Amino acid sequence: MMLKSIYKPDGGKLVRIEVDLLDNSINQIKICGDFFLHPEDGLEMIEANLVGIRMMERDIRMSIKQTVETKRLTLFGITPKDIAKAVMMAR
Question: What's the pTM?
Answer without folding.
Answer: 0.95
